[in-house]
Specification:
Keywords: Membrane, Transmembrane, Transmembrane helix. The protein has a domain of about 40 residues. By secondary structure, the protein is mainly α. The chain is built from one helix and no strands. It is rod-shaped and about 90 Å long.
């Protein structure tokens, strides 16, 4: 008859190591920077492009 051991051996049991607070803060800062920074950067480039087009159209109407 086949028996399956239900209790894990001592070698198989791993203790859960707590994550240091600085590593957690660093990962939160990284995610926050990406979530906020990427849309702001894209919005900045769109704004600069819009201003450039507006200036070109204004200059074209003056000529």
């Amino acid at each position: 008859m086949l028996q399956i051991e239900t209790q894990p051996t001592r070698d198989a049991v791993r203790t859960v190591q707590p994550v240091p607070i600085m590593d957690r803060l660093r990962s939160i800062a990284l995610v926050t920077t990406l979530v906020v920074g990427i849309p702001l950067t894209l919005a900045w480039f769109v704004f600069v492009g819009w201003v450039a087009l507006w200036l070109l159209r204004s200059a074209a109407t003056l000529l």
